[in-house]
Amino acid sequence: MDRKAIGLWRISAHRLLAGPEAHKSEVATLRTSKEPISSFKVVENGKSIIATSDSILTLGTTRTTSQSPLKALSYTWRDVECPEWISSFDVRVIREEMTPKQKKSEKHHRNARLDIVIGGLKGSLHVYDDLMRKLIRVEKKSNKDAAPNF
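^ thats the sequence. predicted structure below, dont judge the formating
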């Protein structure tokens, strides 16, 4: 997290260079927010970022590989409004095996299953099983419903 401009909070990626350029680093801003980010976790070697701010749970995913330059690093962000302020959270990542047919297909990309448990400020626990896939499914359905009929 980084606060560079008044009123903006940022999640940034920093890559330290090696060799003769070790004194340099690459920096890319991944997300900006007006609200301070109270906590976040990076899972799946950077493919998913989960952050919290007040009662908002923010999920970011990328298809970019870790070897790509930071300029090419792009995340898709989704916000979930939780029923109460978030005091803590934990993430369980479950990587599912792909079939040989899925492995051969370059188009096929499968996000890991992300199970998230949130501890609310009033003491309740909120369990979200496979949250990322459910959000993607809802987006696809709403996009399909919004498509014009020709």
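The CA atoms of residues 139 and 145 lie 10 Å apart.
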